[in-house]
Structures are given as structure tokens and as C-alpha cells.
């Protein structure tokens, strides 16, 4: 019994349940009062002539007035500012009120029972049973009040009918005696089910909240870079497309910034240091751009900027310069501080219709232009760039649409030994004479072939011609062949090249593959494996354009190159710029110390050739010796050089 009563008590420490009880109860209480008023007045009216006026009219009228005011209070004030604490107080009052009203109406009906005939007494019985049970059901969400009403109502009914002398009423009283306990069990069972439902609802709400929080996190992760907190690439393009849809003919100003020198930070200090650089860069960019623009991390060390729409061309240029300058300030890392540099490509579009991809491509192309100048700074997309970009698209379409195999060929530039003047090798240089566009520069079609993923096929076509040329050339001559970044990082292409060498019968020792530092930067580990495999087959490897990258010494240390090719940018200014001369001398000394050959590119005068020879540079190529030649002319040139060298040897002897 104690546990039963405890289960019916209000749970003050469970605010969720209290609020659920009160909400359910507040919708039933008005019905309870309406039932009491209607049924009490109905009984009163039928007993006006058979019972004293104070009993038949005044008491039920007074009770009805009390019920009416309670009904009005519940409708007007009962649902205002409900908290768990206030709900607890109101339900305690309701329990007490239920007990008082049940006793009052029960006492009144018992007192009225002795008046009137059998029909009127039957009406009293109906009032006690039906009205009482109806009130009990209205109070089910407040089990203590419902249980109290049950006990009082059935007790009043049993007391009244048991001694009435009417066999029907006596039988009703006996039945009522056995109904008290089932009713109490029903009340308890209903309430426990209600409690379970509230708990289940609460658990579902918590799970829903957790799911919503997870969705929010997933949404944030889907649209934000987890390292820097900036918008990510997807969010960047969504923002760009949203602005284009909002103002189709007034496109936003877009910038792409790339960090020069970031990879060496990762290589030397580790990825943790690189992460610090990216986070600090993001912070500086965000502070400069402000709330009117959008800063995004597009991937790696590339950032996208949507400039504030109100900025003029000059203001955008100034902000672009400020962004590039911001990353030049030292960035603190655990091992000290590092510096990186920024290059920025910006598209300030004219009024008109653009797609997000159009704007990004233009800004990215402007970035490529400034990086190709090997200098940090800002470059705006221009009409000249538009012309180059249009040509690039046409070339890409031509590569994809037509069979270019018959239009590709190789020219051969002699590589000369400076001391003897003899030709020792040739560099095979790709040429494309398009039937549609005429002669297309390798600087245009090689990158296009890489972008359109036809570079592997192009490499195979050209290398097949190179092997045929080697079979014709004198056996002491070697051939240098350039591999693109995709080639050197593609195991399938390297295996195909080895198979072609085997089938051709050419000695692999006559072949030299040239690679650039850019190729190494794209995927060093794969490039390392491919280079090791090629060298194991007897093929020499040369590092092209040495000195223009960011980690050349690191690459030389980690990879066993057979030759370094000094970039023509240093060699061509050799006799005019002391710094170029010093760099060239340093590279020549480095090669001598490592026991590998050095090749100077871009030799255009006798003075440069003599200066290089004096420094210890062994091999050279350039227009001073010969332009790239067709195969037959290249072989003739080698013959003439050999004859001249032999004549000099004979004279000196």
C-alpha cells in the first residue's frame, strides 16, 4: 500500500513529468467543472419541490458558482507562465480541491437522497456513479486526486445505498464495494503508462536533438575546413553561385592565393608546423578581408577570396598586395619561425553573365601567370590572358577530338662537350604541327595534354620516335627525353616505356630521362620509386631547370641524379648579372663535388660558353651551338662537330 501511494505522489524532482502532467491535466479540468455544474444543476432542478430550498437550490448553486469561477481561472490564468515549480504548486492545490469538492458534492447528494420518490433517488445514484466516474477519468493525469475522488465517491455511494432498503440499490452498493480496488489499479496503471510515454518522448527528443547536433556538425564539416575553420572548397563555390544567382549580371570579384615555400616547411619541420602556418595564414587573411568578403581554404596551401562587393579595382589591388604581404611576416612554430610568400591571381570581371567555374578558372589562370614569372605578387586576369585561355581551350579540344599522333614529331638540340666541342647527346624536343592551328608551342600543348590526361599517350608516341632516332644515330650518342609530372608519377607509363626500350633493342644506357622539380613536388614518393626503377634498368636521370624550385638540395640528397641541368634563366644572364654568375658557379662546384655532370642550358654566345668552361661546367646546349634540328640535320651537325674536333686534336698533336 505504501508503494502504491508513493507511486501516485507528485515527483517534484522530475520537472519534465510535472510539465507533461500539468499540460494533460489542464485540458481535462475544464471538462470536469462543466460536468459537475450541469449534473448538479440537473439534480437541483428535479428536487426543488421535494426538498428544502437551501438543500435543493442554494447549496448546488453555491457549489456551481465555485466550479464556474475555478473554470474561468483555469481558462484565463491557469496556463500563464507555467514552470515546473508553478505546475507543482497548482497540482497540489488541485489535489486538495478535488478532495474538498468530492466531499462537498458527495455530502450534498447523500443529504438529498432522503427526499423524493424512487425516480429521484435513482437520479442521485446516477449522479454519484456517472458524475463521479467521469471526474475520475478527468483526473487520471493527477493520480492522487483521481484515487481520492474514487475512494470518496464510491464510499458515499456505498454508505447511501447499502442501508436504503432498496434491493437494487443495495446490490449496486455491493458492486461498488468491489469496484474500488480495480479502479485504483486502473488509475495506477494508466498513470504508469503515462509516465513511460513521457520518458519515451523525452528520450526520443534527446535522440532527435543528438541527431540534429550531429547533422549540424556534419553540415559544418561539409562546408568548413576543419583545420582553419574557414569555409572549404564546396562552401566557397556555393557562396559564389549564390552571389551569381542573386546578381547574375554583376559578378563578384574573385581571388586565388597560393603560398610559395609552404612545402619546404612541411618537409623540414613536419606537418604540425605546416598546420600552424595554415591556421595563422587563415587568421591574417580573415582579419584583412573583414566581414564583407569570404575567405576559404580550397585545399592544401590554396586559399580563395570573394572580395567585398563595394571595392573598386584599386582597392582590390591594394587588398591583394596586403594579403600577399601578410604571409611574408614570420610565423612562429615550435622550432622557431618560418616565412612563406604569397602569389595572388584576381579576376575583376566586367558586367555580364559568368559561371562560378568561369570566374575560378580565370583567377586560377592569373595565379598561374604570376607564379610562372617566379615572383610573388598580384596578377589581374586581363584581355591578353583571355586570349591565351581561349587558345588553351581550343588546344584541349583539339587534343581530345582529333588523332594528333600523325602531327607530332621531335626536333633534336645538340648537347656539346665544352672542352672538345663534340656532340655527346641530344635533347629530344616535342613539336606539334596542327593541321588546324599550325605550329603549337610545347609550353602550350604539354600542359594542355596533362590537363586532359592524354599526356601518357603523347609520351608513348614521342618516345617511340625517339627510340627510332636512337637506332639511326651513331652509337656513341645519347638521347635525353623529357618526362612530365604525370609521367614520372605514373607507374603504368614508366613500365610501358621500359617495355618499349626492350622491344626496340636500344641500349638503355644511351637514354636519359629529364624531370623537373615540379614533377617531384606533385608526388615525391611515387617519383622516387619510378626513378629508382628506371635507374636500375640502366637509364640515366637528369634534374631539369635546377635552381628554380624550393627544395633542390633536399631532392639531390634524397635522389641519386646523374646530371643537373642549370636553368637557362641563370645562364643567359651569366655575363650581365653577378648573382647569376655566382649561382652558376655554385651549381658547377656542387656537381664536381658530387661527381655528377652539369649541363648549362641557354648558351647564346661564345663568351658565355668560355666562361662556363672556365668554371668547370662540362656540357652545354643553346642557340650558340645550334637550334633544335630535324633528325637528319642533327646527325649531320654532330658529324661536322666531330670532324672539327678531330682536326683540332690533330693540329695540337
Automatic annotation (TrEMBL):
The chain crosses the membrane at residues 29-48, 54-73, 93-112, 124-142, 154-184. PROSITE patterns: EAL, GGDEF. The keyword Calcium does not apply. GO terms for molecular function: cyclic-guanylate-specific phosphodiesterase activity. CDD domains: EAL, GGDEF. InterPro entries: Cyclic-di-GMP_PDE-like, EAL_dom, EAL_sf, GGDEF_dom, Nucleotide_cyclase, Rev_trsase/Diguanyl_cyclase. The keyword NADP does not apply. It holds the Pfam family GGDEF. Keywords: Membrane, Transmembrane, Transmembrane helix. It comes from the Bacteria. Residues 250-383 form the GGDEF domain. Residues 392-642 form the EAL domain. PANTHER family: CYCLIC DI-GMP PHOSPHODIESTERASE PDEF (PTHR33121), OXYGEN SENSOR PROTEIN DOSP (PTHR33121:SF71). This is Diguanylate cyclase (GGDEF)-like protein. The lineage of its organism: Bacteria, Pseudomonadati, Pseudomonadota, Alphaproteobacteria, Hyphomicrobiales.
